[in-house]
Amino acid sequence: MLRHVDVAAKSLEPYRAVAGAEVVAELERLAAPLRGARILQINATAYGGGVSVLLRSLVPLYRGLGLTVDWRVMPGTPEFFTVTKGLHNALQGASFDLTEERRGLYLDHNREVAEALRRQDHYDVVIVHDPQPAAVRHFLGGDDTRWVWRCHIDTSHPDPAAIRFLEPLVAEYDALVYTMEEFLPADLRDRPVRIITPAIDPLSPKNLPLPDDLVRGILAWTGISLDRPLVSQISRFDPWKDPLGVVEVYRRVREQVPGTQLALVGQMALDDPQGWEILRQIQQESVDDDDIHVLTNFTGIDDVGVNAFQRASSVVLQKSIREGFGLVVSESLWKGTPVVAGRTGGIPLQMPDGVGGYLIESTEECVARTVELL
Ligand code: UDP
Fold first, then answer.
1. Which phi and psi (to 5°) does residue 140 adopt?
2. 17: burial class by Cβ within 10 Å (0-12, 13-18, 19+)?
3. How far apart are CA 41 and CA 323, in angstroms?
4. pLDDT tens, 18-70?
5. Which amino acid residue places its CA nearest to atom 11 of ligand 1?
6. Cys staple from 228: which of 197, 259, 295, 349, with CB 3.0 to 4.6 Å?
7. Residue minimizing CA distance to atom 23 of ligand 1
8. How far is CA 154 from the centre of its chain?
9. What's the burial of 22, exposed, middle or buried (CB within 10 Å: 0-12/13-18/19+)?
10. Ligand 1 center to residue 327 CA distance, Å?
């Protein structure tokens, strides 16, 4: 029932050049006592969104360190993922009616996943990512397995009913991992907690150096001219990333910098049914403007395509209203492309205002900073 994601082991040797020999030596030292333990990572999708990007790089590196780490994806129906996206949104502050029926659907499905896992291999440590599979621990705990809940979202201003529902489930874990101290709800402060910031993988296809002619070729293939300014946002189509706000920014920027083009590049995630509705709204908004390009993994933009867009853009926007971390910010900065991004969640950890780009808190500021950088 839980799909196994097939990734290989990857040596850390090439990372000495980017992370430094000391960091690699420290990782080897930390890994040594864990060799022999069986570790499982569970999340809700093998593609789409930062969690799958992180696991896609981390699991091979853990294996390269000699650890036994599996990655399994919980299955889910559209109804289940509609409830979990609502819960995700509510944990980030939106209102969502967590009715008895929705709670039941969420818990029943987590119970089924737990039962399927019980029938599979035994693990010494299970690391559960985000709210979708968070209740699996509740239905499966009790033996000597150690459980870690890894929260990737901003839960600093949650809807009270949503956090009341999730907290007791999460409190059962042996340890919690958050991206920022501020995201930790007050009632969980006495739990064992670690703060760990995500990071990009400089040696993944999304971040490897690309020859200029390949970048130009990919952009030309999408119909974008590199002779005119290009502003891009590369993100899931999600209300917290404010893609419609990005269209408004583009329109106002274009009044001052005629000829500017906009690319909205989005990956449709298996566990995010809301993305399709937002994609429809963006397409409706942009139908009369040939200089707005809406592109997805379904229309040919893979990791190398994202890499090319992050290199070729004049400015990368990340107009987030709430953000867990926002890997896209580091990805663009890594390529030396200026970023204009919402001052929210983990974004300021990656980019102090004025270093590599600007942090903004309003559409007006976003327009002004983008114009300044073009
Ligand atoms: N991404 C992608 N293709 C796209 C849009 C986004 O591969 O068309 C990737 C992006 O490069 C980043 C991840 O999806 O690696 C999004 O992670 P982030 O932390 O920025 O946001 P999340 O989706 O987890 O909220």
1. -125, -10
2. exposed
3. 22
4. 999 999 999 999 999 999 999 999 999 999 899 999 999 999 999 999 999 99
5. 328
6. 259
7. 49
8. 12
9. exposed
10. 7
DSSP secondary structure letters along 174-196: SEEEES-GGGS-GGGTTS-EEE-
Q: 16: part of which helix (H) or strand (E)?
A: helix 16-19
* Distant-in-sequence contacts of 32-36, Cβ < 8 A, 24+ apart: 34/67, 35/66, 35/67, 35/68, 36/68
- Report CA(59)–ligand 1 centroid distance (Å): 18
pLDDT > 90 fraction of the chain, expressed in percent and rounded: 91
Joined together, the tokens standing for residue 147 give 């459980």
According to DSSP, residue 229 is labeled -
Residue type, 358: Y
At 53, which helix (H) or strand (E)?
helix 50-64
Q: What is the pLDDT of residues 75-122, one digit of tens each?
A: 999 999 999 999 999 999 999 999 999 999 999 999 999 999 998 889
CA atoms within 13 A on the CB side of 288: 2
Q: Count other Cβ atoms within 10 Å, centred on residue 268.
A: 17
CA of 236 to the centre of ligand 1 (A): 6
Alpha-carbon separation of residue 162 from 93, 123, 166, 178 (angstroms): 9, 30, 6, 18
For 145, the token pair is: 């397995």
Tokens 């009913």 -> residue: 161
Sheet containing 339-342: order of strands? 292-296, 261-266, 230-234, 315-318, 339-342, 357-360
Q: CA of 222: how far to CAs of 131, 218, 254, in Å?
A: 36, 7, 20
Residues 194 and 126: beta-carbon distance below 8 Å? no
Alpha-carbon distance 211 to 213, whole Å? Answer: 6
> 269 C-alpha vs ligand 1 centroid, how far in Å?
10
For residue 128, give the H/E element and its range. strand 125-129
Using CA atoms, how far apart are residues 304 and 281, in angstroms rounded to an integer?
26
pLDDT category at 271 given cuts 50, 70, 90 is confident
The letter for the amino acid at 31 is A
